[in-house]
Design a protein that fits this description.
This is FAD-dependent oxidoreductase. The chain has three domains: about 120 residues, FAD/NAD(P)-binding domain; about 45 residues, no CATH class; about 120 residues, FAD/NAD(P)-binding domain. α4 packs antiparallel against α5 and α4 packs across α8. Helices cover about 30% and strands about 30% of the residues. By secondary structure, the protein is an alpha/beta fold. A hairpin with an 8-residue loop joins β2 and β3. The strands form four sheets. Strands 1, 2, 3, 4, 5, 6, 7 and 8 form an eight-stranded mixed β-sheet that branches. The structure holds flavin-adenine dinucleotide (FAD). The site of flavin-adenine dinucleotide (FAD) has 29 residues, from α2, β4, α3 and α4.
């Protein structure tokens, strides 16, 4: 999981924290006296409702704190809705294709086996569509106040949430996750991100992935098993830098066998629309080359929200 920024607006522990007792009634937010636009107070407000947030919010609520969570998107965050979980469902399809092909001549005839992309994507949505409601119900049944909107700090201990008003807390947990980093080149508006990739109606014939990180590799290998021709560019000599070098080279070699081509020391210069194609200019050392693709995916680094 990503590192989580935790900020504590007040150092004094709340009564609930001191007693460590489960205090169901105290979970209701404290409402400041006075005006209708009163600020509501909590022991803890968690910004973002991904997996990091859900665990922390539930644990603190179970310990008796008054807790609120807020997200500007449907609850569930990246992992459940736009990352690990739907990705693993797509990957399962690719694994089945791969396993069948590897057994060719060993008792399995894999000739007609194929990924039906729209059906596979629809399958992922049978999971992701239910998650926000499930997560919200789970939090509410644990006494957590659930809020919706974009949150921003307007004071040391106060956040304003679009459409909900202002809220104060003794503690804030910033669990706002990450999104794809902007690549500053001409034509970058043509880039598709991993979220859009997982919702594509159809997989195009030629896909170019920018960046040799785990998102490019996983989606590249899935797309290749679904029949696309895949190319990946990476600025460095070695992709997947955080992973074991020997294993990475084996994966790269396996990629070549199944139609995933890797261009090392290659950086993106520009993307242009050319009819239905994208004309992608890349640079390897001092050599410039134009690649054609039907889809260009930003599979590289992400930055914190
Ligand atoms: C395609 C993909 C595949 C992945 N696969 C894996 C995998 O297989 N295994 C693995 O371990 N990790 C994987 N990851 C990484 C993993 O998804 C993240 O590390 C994890 O989801 C981070 O969880 P989080 O709770 O910190 O943040 P997130 O889940 O990103 O949640 C943050 C939430 O904060 C909300 N938010 C942001 N700003 C605000 C604001 N100002 N106000 C209100 N709400 C806000 C966002 O809308 C979001 O819902 C993958 C990531 C991607 C993109």
């Amino acid at each position: 999981m990503r590192a989580i920024a935790v900020s504590s607006a007040h150092s004094a522990p709340s009564p609930a924290r001191r007693s460590r007792k489960r205090v169901p009634i105290a979970r209701a937010p404290h409402v400041a006296e006075g005006g209708e636009m009163s600020t509501r107070n909590f022991d803890l407000i968690v910004l973002g409702v991904g997996m990091a947030a859900v665990n922390a919010a539930n644990k603190c609520a179970s310990a008796g704190w008054s807790v609120a969570v807020v997200d500007e998107l449907p609850y569930g965050g990246t992992c459940a809705l736009r990352g690990c979980d739907p990705k693993k469902m797509l990957r399962r399809g690719a694994e089945i294709i791969d396993a069948a092909r590897l057994m060719h001549g060993k008792g399995i005839e894999p000739n007609d086996i194929a990924i039906n992309w729209p059906d596979l994507v629809a399958f992922t949505q049978t999971f992701t569509d239910k998650m926000p409601g499930r997560i919200e119900n789970g939090l509410e049944s644990n006494g957590v106040t659930t809020l919706h909107g974009k949150a921003r700090f307007v004071g040391e201990d106060t956040v304003e949430i679009d459409g909900e008003g202002q809220f104060q807390a003794n503690h804030f947990l910033i669990a706002t996750g990450a999104k794809p980093r902007t690549i500053d080149v001409p034509g970058s508006e043509h880039l598709t991100d991993s979220t859009e990739f997982m919702r594509l109606d159809a997989l195009p014939e030629r896909i170019l992935f920018i960046g040799g990180g785990f998102i490019s590799f996983e989606f590249g290998h899935i797309a290749a098993r679904a029949g696309s021709e895949v190319c990946m560019i990476d600025r460095g000599e070695r992709p997947l830098k955080g992973f074991d070098a020997d294993l990475v080279e084996r994966l790269v070699a396996r990629g070549e066998e199944v139609g995933v081509q890797l261009r090392r020391r290659t950086s993106l210069k520009s993307i242009k629309k050319d009819g239905t194609d994208f004309l992608v200019t890349v640079e390897t050392g001092s050599e410039t080359k134009d690649l054609r693709a039907d889809l260009v995916v930003q599979g590289g680094p992400r930055r914190g929200n």
